[in-house]
Design goal:
Blueprint (H helix, E strand, L loop, with lengths): L9 E5 L5 H8 L3 E5 L3 H10 L10 H5 L7 E7 L7 H14 E12 L3 E3 L4 E6 L2 E5 L5 E3 L5 H7 L3 E8 L4 E8 L1
Parallel strand pairs: 1-2, 1-3, 3-4
Antiparallel strand pairs: 4-10, 5-8, 6-7, 9-10
Length: 177
């Protein structure tokens, strides 16, 4: 992982499902990996919200892991695409509280007009390759976040890096302020 020191031990949270390949990848590095598998809970919470109800997202309670603080890296994968804008703000607020000063958040944003109906299951194969499986089903409209809009929604973070992948996903690396 580019930019990570070999001397420091890092704390990393994967918000997706546990993956043997991802665990194997991070086991080679000096880090403590937490796996949250919180995406179904967040989507269920979003469905239960009333229109006039302000969202209060408590990720530590949803994840149910002890010692979940001072995170150096959080892998959000593509979950942001499936959240309403007001929930993205609550999501970023909750994540920001868990971050180490200067920590990073990694996310994929769809740039095409359509995206899979449900978030994918991601796994890291090696330093330059990932694999993703999407649930079978038809596509739904993608939110099409502009970079400036996304920067405003992700409170407590600034966009540090962004690049368009061949798949049409925009990969973002956010820096915790």
């Amino acid at each position: 992982m580019q930019g990570f020191s070999e001397e420091q031990k890092y704390r990393i949270l994967d918000l997706g499902k546990a993956s043997g390949a991802t665990v194997a990848f991070f086991s080679k590095l000096r880090c403590k990996l937490f796996v949250g598998d919180v995406i179904p809970a967040i989507l269920s919470y979003q469905k239960s919200l009333q229109d006039d109800e302000p969202p209060r997202l408590m990720l530590p309670d949803m994840i149910g892991l002890d010692d979940l603080s001072e995170l150096d890296l959080v892998m959000c994968w593509d979950i942001i695409n499936y959240l309403d804008t007001h929930l993205i703000e609550a999501f970023s607020d909750s994540l920001h509280q868990l971050m180490a000063n200067g920590g990073y958040l990694h996310a994929f944003i769809y740039t095409h007009k359509e995206m899979p109906a449900k978030p994918g299951n991601y796994q890291i194969l090696d330093a330059s390759q990932m694999d993703v499986e999407y649930p079978v089903g038809s596509g739904i409209p993608a939110p099409g976040f502009a970079q400036r809009e996304l920067g405003k929604l992700m409170r407590g973070f600034e966009i540090r890096q962004s690049r368009l992948l061949q798949s049409g996903l925009q990969e973002y690396l956010f820096h915790s302020l």
